[in-house]
Design brief:
The protein has three domains: 138 residues, no CATH class; 176 residues, Rossmann fold, CATH 3.40.50; 77 residues. Helix content is 36%, strand content 16%. It has 17 helices and 13 strands. Strand 7 and strand 8 form a beta hairpin. The relative contact order is 0.11. It comes from Hortaea werneckii (Black yeast). InterPro entries: AAA_ATPase_domain (IPR050168), ATPase_AAA_core (IPR003959), P-loop_NTPase (IPR027417). One of its GO terms (molecular function) is RNA binding. One of its GO terms (cellular component) is nucleus.
Amino acid sequence: MEPFTLVEESSAPGPHHLFDDVLALTSAPTADHDLQYISRLREANPGMIVTAIPANNVPLRAFAAAGLATCDRDNETDNFASLRGYIAPSLRQNRGQVAEVISFAKYWYNWNNESFILYVVGDMQYVLKESRGSEHIHGPSKVTDALIQTVGDWLLSDQEVVWVYDLYWSHSKELYKQVLKAFWDNVILDEEQKADLTKVATKFFSSKDVYEDLGVPWKRGLLFHGPPGNGKTISIKALMHTLLQRDEPIPTLYVKNAPMTYDIRSVFSQARRLSPCMLVLEDIETIVTSETRSYFFNELDGLENNDGLFVVGSTNFLDRLDPGLSKRPSRFDRKYLFPLPSEHERTLYCEYWRHKLEKKPDVEFPRKLSPAMAHITSGFSFAFLQECFVATLLTLARGETGLAEKDDDEDLDRYELWRTFKEQADALRKEINDETAFGSFLHSRWSDPASDEVTLAGNSKTPVATSSTSITQNPPHSSTNSRKDTTLPDLRGLAVRDELLPQLPYAYQKRAFINSAAIEERLP
């Protein structure tokens, strides 16, 4: 009897599943996966060039979500994994929503009549494209590079934004919309000062040749100062609007918080990239502190090219600024005072409110009330005047307003609006007096070197006051935030979506890890 021979039928290898490799590699063999993934993908896809692309630099799925490419998830040939969570509503009356961050996915990606295979593994994207012509299998792929270039150009193509720095750069559509509504006609300010501000800004950006002929740097600085609530911010917005109306619109960079030298470097680096531009430093005394002063001056006056920088600083406390800012013309050539409004300007502001309320039949607001309201609000800033009107209208809305018959009686007390306005003005005047006294006390404490040190901004001994009504601390500057790559645009507003779900906030995402088993294997 002949012995039996067992013959096993050989089966063709099935499709490669990168998910299996991810699962195996994260179980112990390695602490850094990128090289492993690239090697495995090359082995499984001969003839394909594998390109690793950071998702926070070139967001391919966001590009597709904008309708500029197609990105279809492949659930047939590989696996899928994600983290899902919940985003609380931005307003209490709204509902929250489910959110997601992709841990692993495979996509069929199409752009410009070119097809790609896209793997997303955490924050890294792996793009596979067949090699062409003389392209080496290790790359680069010209088609993939063209895709990267296009996505990068797309990220910076939206000019209808304001760049905002608050520990890192981001785009603000909302601020841009506010700027479009900021007209000089709505700014109650000395007409000569308004005209001068507009002239200085527009002339600067049209005078590059003049500066070059004179052999002086093409840069200029303005400093807005005065008590809080008197038009500095709205004037800056109106100036931004003016510059956007030029044939070649001038962008604005708005700096809210830059407490460290790294932040100041990021601010000026971005300003130089986007020049000619206007650089706004709000509450400049919180940016140029004793710790950052020398570095700031080096960035402003140093060897690097600052051509095209139009710097506008604002402060509520001119006397607290370093003399190098407030008294050196080459840094801030012109200073503009925004004082408390005169009675005439307060009358104009009351007239502004009267016109706003003309279509409110339940509010009787005759013209003769405006000068009377202005007269009893001596010493009020525009901010306090606004609060007086808002509080008055809210009080009237909550109560029952009795409207008097119209006649020639000059007695203003017959108008409910006037009586309520007087009450609110009296209450606000007491608040102004209390805050003035408190501000004087704090100023004496800051100014007296013999007094106890007042620490209001982290570990700094420099107090930070952003307005007469509040004293705020600089937010903590974490090492994570301070090391963000500010050369890259902020992508959070792009709403990278998969199946219509928003991105899960970073705070809830899984952190990177190092596999302890992999380290142990490499110990001597």
